[in-house]
Amino acid sequence: MTDIQKETSRKGKLIVVASSNGGSGKSSIASNLGVSLAQNGHKTVVLDNNFYFSDMHVFFDKKYKHNISGIFENYADIDEKTIELYLTQYNMKNLYVIPGTNTPEDGEQIEDEKYLKVINHLTFAADYIIVDLVNGFSDLNLSLLDMCHHMIIISNSNLNTVLNTKKYVDIVEQLNLTCELHLIINKYSKNKNLSQKQIETLLDHEGLMYIKNEEKLMAKAINIGIPAIILNKASAYSKKINELGKRVTAFSIGGE
Q: Model confidence over 173-203: pLDDT tens digits?
C-alpha cells in the first residue's frame, strides 16, 4: 500500500481527555464518552497512557484476553490490521477497550515511540480513539497532543482546581495545537464551591460545559463496572455526555 493509499484509508480521530488535577472524573468521562460515540455508530477504542497504575478497565467490568503489554510483547507483528486482534469488545457494538499493564514493572517495558506507533495503527482501525491522559506534560503527552483532533480538559468547581486548570489551559494554548479544545466543569454543584460566573471569569474561556455532580450514580457505576451512561441513560450526567459526543462528531464532520 502506498503512503497516499494509507492516508486515504485512515479514518480515526484521536481524542485526549486531560486534567490538571487528580480526582476530576477524567477517566469516567473518557469511558462514558466512548460508550456514547459507540452507541451512535462510531467504532471507538478507549485506552490510557498511565503505564504504571492504569485503571481504565475498572470502568468496564469484563474479562480481557489482551492488554497493552501484549501489544508490546508482539510489537514486531503489529500493524494497522493486526492491531484489531488486541482489541477487546465491550458488551455492546462498536466499543473496544485496551486495558493497561498488569503491574508497574510491565509499564517500564513500554517505549513512548512504540506507543505512538500503536496509536497511529489504531487510526486505521477505528473511527475514534480516546486516550485517558496521565497528568502532566511529558514528552509522550506532548506528542499525543500534537496528534489529537480533540482535547477535552476536565476541571472541578473548587478554587484550587479552577486556578490550576487556568494554568493548564494557558500552557496548552501556548503549544498552538490544531485540535479542537473542549473545557468541562465536572461534578458541578451550584450550592458548593465557585459559581458559574466566578468560574467563567477565572478561566476566561468560551463554551464551557457544566456536568452536574451525581455522586451516587458515579459511585455505583464504578463499583459494578458499568458506565453511568448505560446504568442510567436518562440521568443529567448521561445527557451531558451525549451532548459532548455530539460536539465531537459535529466538529469532526465539519472539520474534514
A: 999 999 999 999 999 988 888 999 999 999 9
Q: Where are the domains of the chain?
A: 3-254
CB atoms within 10 A of CB 196: 13
Write the CATH number of the domain with boundaries 3-254: 3.40.50.300
Cα–Cα dist 40/30, whole Å: 16
pTM over the 0.90 mark:
yes
